[in-house]
Amino acid sequence: MADYILETKNLFKEFRGFTAVSGVNLQIQRGHIHALIGPNGAGKTTVFNLLTKFLTPTSGSIHFNGDDITSEKSADIALRGIVRSFQISAVFPGLTPRENVRLALQRKLGVSYHFWKSDAILLQLDGRVMELLEDVGLVDYADEITGELAYGRKRALEIATTLALDPELMLLDEPTQGMGVEDVDKITALVRKVSTRRTILMVEHNLKVVATLADRITVLQRGAILAEGPYAEVSQDPLVLEAYMGSAHA
Questions:
Q1: Closest CA to 93 of 167, 151, 132
Q2: Is 59 helix (H, G, I), strand (E, B) or coil?
Q3: 43: helix, coil or strand?
Q4: What percent of the chain shows pLDDT beyond 90?
Q5: For residues 203 and 217, what is the distance between their CA atoms, to the nearest angstrom?
Q6: What pTM value is reported for the model?
Q7: Which region holds residue 151: left if phi is over 0, alpha if psi is between -120 and 50, else beta?
Q8: Which of 145, 139, 210 is nearest to 172 (CA)?
């Protein structure tokens, strides 16, 4: 039997009579890269918001490592090892990459509020900081101002800060959005690299990225699952071609 790290059971979300997510049953296999795709308005980001408890399901349940986490808060979800990135880069532009990653490590290690202690406390984190920056190709930019970095490097930094929290499950929301071809290729390679020993669930519009990375794909349409399976199979599904991929390749 497959080892599922995350499952949803008959998940619904309604907003004043509008059903944004309708009976979604997800099964995310441990160690896989799983892509959630679909046209605009299909419910992908709403599903992410439900999984990370930015929204509360109208009905249904969410299970992580076999535990029902439906009623837990966002902070509890993060402590369990579910960490999410956002469509818009969520790093501190006035700090350096070194400082951004160090802050994330402080949060993970429980020293977020030790600002009154010696700098030596923070310098102890620098070894791990530089390891993470090395992982995402940003060592040479460690002490630059983040706001002055190219967009692709900001996204790479966001992945580094996510990795600093040592997630068991990473949720990546449009990691290549707004990028040129060169940056897309770099981030694709980076996602593949950081997927070692962890599970990734990603929302992504770029079908080349999905085809390259995803072990399994779930296609949403109007808040419900339209198709699911490996890319080679899903990409040939007539319903998917009509609803999403056909228009994307037109």
A1: 151
A2: strand
A3: coil
A4: 56
A5: 10
A6: 0.86
A7: alpha
A8: 210
DSSP β-bridge partners for residue 61: 9
Per the CB < 8 A criterion, the answer to whether 70 and 61 are in contact is yes
Tokens of 113: 């509020």
Which residues are CB-contacts of 67 (< 8 A; sequence separation ≥ 6)?
80
Residue 224 CB-density burial (10 A; 0-12 exposed, 13-18 middle, 19+ buried): middle
Which amino acid does the sequence have at 131? E
What is the Cα–Cα distance from 51 to 62, expressed in whole angstroms?
A: 7
| pLDDT score of 177 | 86
Give the integer Cα–Cα distance in Å for 33 and 202. Answer: 8
Residue with tokens 């400082």: 99
Segments making up each domain of the chain, as ranges? 1-81+168-250, 89-166
Q: Is the distance from CB of 176 to CB of 211 less than 8 angstroms?
A: no
CATH class of the domain comprising 1-81+168-250: alpha beta
d(CA 81, CA 157): 19
Rounded Cα–Cα distance for residues 195 and 193 (Å): 6
pLDDT band at 55 (very low <50, low <70, confident <90, very high): very high
What is the rounded average pLDDT of the residues 14-36?
94
